[in-house]
Amino acid sequence: MSKVIVVTSGKGGVGKTTSSAAFSAGLAARGHKTAVIDFDVGLRNLDLIMGVERRVIYDFVNVINGEATLKQALIKDKRVDNLYILPASQTRDKDALTKEGVESIINELKADGFDYIVCDSPAGIEKGAFMALYFADEAIVVTNPEVSSVRDSDRILGILQSRSKVAEDGGSVKEHLLITRYSPDRVEGGDMLGMDDIVEILSIPLIGVIPESGSVLQASNSGNPVIMDKESTAGQAYEDVVSRFLGEDIPLRFVDVEQKKKGFFQKIFG
Amino acid sequence: MSMLNVLHLEHSDVSAIAAELQKKRDEMPQFFMQSPVVVDCNPLGEDVNSFDFLALKESLLSLGFIPVGVRNNPPALNKSLAEAGWAVMRESRKPFNDGQTEAAATETNDNDSTVDTANLPTNSTIETSNSVENSDQHLEAQVAPPASNNVKSLTVDKPVRSGQQIYAAESDMTVLAQTSAGSEIMADGSIHVYGALRGRVLAGAMGNESARIFCQSLQAELIAIAGRYQLLDESDTNLIGKPAMIKLLGEKLIIEPLSA
Questions:
Q1: Distance, in angstroms, between A258 CA and closest chain B CA?
Q2: Residue range A86-119, pLDDT digits in tens
Q3: Which residue segments constitute the domains of chain B, with CATH numbers given?
Q4: Facing B180 at nearest CB: one of A154, A159, A162
Q5: Which residue on chain B is closest to A158 by alpha carbon?
Q6: DSSP state string for A186-248
Q7: What is the pLDDT of residues A129-170, one digit of tens each?
Q8: Structure pTM?
Q9: What is the number of helices (H) and of strands (E) in chain B?
C-alpha cells in the first residue's frame, strides 16, 4: 500500500522543501521506493535542493497537460536508489494544477509501485497548498518555534481535517509535527517557543525536532539533502524523523542545552 | 452591545441597500465581520410581496454578513422565503411580558402584517441596531423556543483550528477537543469545551441571556454571551488556564471557577 504524505506549514521559509528533500531521501535510503513532488508551481525549489536542477526536462505541469509522460518527467536520483523527483514548472502558475490532473499522477505513481509519495507544499493556503494536501493520507506539519509559524500551522491543520479528500470521505489525515530551526539556547533564554509549548498549542504528535544548524544552508546550496550529511546534528535529527515515521520509538536528540554541553565536555575530556 | 443586527427594509431597491450596508460595514469592518443579520420587513408595507429576498441574501453574504432570518413578513411569503434560503422568524408569545407593549403590538400584527409603528426607525433607511435594548428583546419575543421533541445539540470531537468557525444554530455546543487561538465557536445556547478554550467563544448568539460558557481551561481571546462581550486580556480574572464557567449577570459577564 502506498502512502501519500504532504509536507506543509502554511507559513513560508520554515523548511518545508528542506524537510521534504531530507525525508524522502531518508525513506529511499532505507529501501522504500519514494517519489517527491514539488507543488510550488511557478517557483521551483525542490530540484535545486535535491541538486537535479540541470536534469529537468519535463515537469509536473507538462504531465498534467499530457505533454509528457510521468516516466519522462520523473528524475531518478543518482545518489540514492529508489528516489525519484517530480519537479515543478517555473513558467506556469498554480492554476495549472487541477484536482483530476494531480489525482491521475498520484494514481499512476501508486500503480508504479511507489511506497511513499511525498508532496512538497508551497506556502500559503491557496490553490498550490490545497492541491498538495488534498490527496494526503498523512501530513508532516513543519513549524518553527515562533508564534506566527505555530498559528499558521494550526490554520493548515484545520484545512487538512476539513477539506482534504480523506476528511471529505469522513476519515482523518494522520498528523505529525516537525519542529525545525530549533535552538535550545534561545528557548532557554526565553526568546523562542519551547517544543512543549508548541506541542501543547497544536496538540498533535511530535515526530521530530530539527536543531538550527549551519549545515542545512550548506546542504541546500550544494544540492545535497541534509540527511546525507551524517556528521551534522540536523542530518541525524532527520534520520530520527524517518525512523519514527517508520514506527521506531527513539528518544529526541539535540533538544536540551544540557545535552549539548555534555557533548561538548565529552569531546574535550573523553 | 449586541452582536445581532436588525436590518429594517424601507424600500425595495436591493442594490441601494447593499451600497448603504457596505458603507456602514466599511466604517467598522471588524465589528460587522461575519455578524448575523435579521431582516425586518415591516417598514416595507405592501412592497414586501415584490421584494427580491434572494438578491438581498446574496448581497449580505458577499458583504460578509450572515443572513439569519426574516421577520414580520406576510405568511404568504413563507414558502418563497424558504426557497430563497431564509429562515422565517416566527412570532411567539413572550415568556414573561414585563410591561412591554411592543411585544403585544407585534402579536396583534401577526396575521395581517400591516405597518407596525412601535419600533420603526424614523430617520435612517437602514438601521443596524447594535443596542441590546433594541435587538435582543425583539428576538426574545420572536424566536420560537425549540419544541421539546426537537432539542438539538452539536458535538464537535475534533480540534477547532485557527480560522475555523462553527455555529450551532438553536442549539448548545459541546467541543471535546481544544479550540485554537484565531478560531470562533458560536451557539444560540450554552457552550461546553473540554479541551483548552483559546479562540473566541460566543454563547447565546441569538440573544439568550441565560446561556453559559463552560470550559476546562480558560484561555479564550474573547468571551461573549447574548452580545455582551469581553476580551479576556482585559478581564481581571485569576482563572486563566483553569476550569471556569461564564454567565451573564445583568450587563456583566461573570467568570466563576468551575469545581464540584
A1: 30
A2: 999 888 888 899 999 999 999 999 999 999 999 9
A3: 4-138 (3.30.70.260), 141-257 (2.160.20.70)
A4: A154
A5: B161
A6: HHHTTSS--HHHHHHHH-S-EEEEEEP-HHHHHHHHHT--GGG-TTSHHHHHHHHHHHHHTT-
A7: 999 999 999 999 999 999 999 999 999 999 999 999 999 999
A8: 0.69
A9: 6, 15
